[in-house]
Amino acid sequence: MESMTEEESRQRQRARFERLAHVVVEPLHRYLLRRTSADMVDDILAEAMLVLWRRIDDVPGLGSAPAPLPDPDDVLPWCYGVARGCLANARRADGRRLRLVERLIRTQEQQPAGVADHSDLHAALAALGALDREVVRLWAWEGLALRQIAEATGLTSNAVSIRLHRAKKKLAEQLRRKQGEPSGHKRDEGRSGQ
Description:
The chain is mostly helical and 194 residues long. It contains 7 helices and no strands. The chain has helices spanning 2-33, 38-54, 72-109, 119-126, 130-140, 146-153, 157-178.
């Protein structure tokens, strides 16, 4: 019996949101179009509607009874405030992204001339299969143990160990070839000094 009341409550909430959306979507869309670029409007509007869904009980003038559509003069000012907040969040996020890109560009430009060239390593990594490349990166760059790599990739620890061993071997062979060394064993390898 109680689950029925929960279901009824959800249906009532959904009906209230649909009535609200019917009244506010177009005005909020126009509001956002006048304040930001057209390519951002839909994302910001979607975020505003999500906030309205979460805070449906806070919308003034909406009422809780299943009634006809709410009066736009009662609900729109509060909804404009929500859209304004979502727009401000989007602008802050864009600002952070732009600052990050600028910082990355400056960092790349400021690297000293003596920085090691890792293009051979990146080319050798690119020659590996996608899963082998990910296993190597998780091991080398992220410092994960085999069992952690297994958890991250969905493989078994044994499969990770085998893939990592083979991938390291392929990388070493490709790097030796690029440096001009013949592949295989060195001539004096394994011989005693006698």
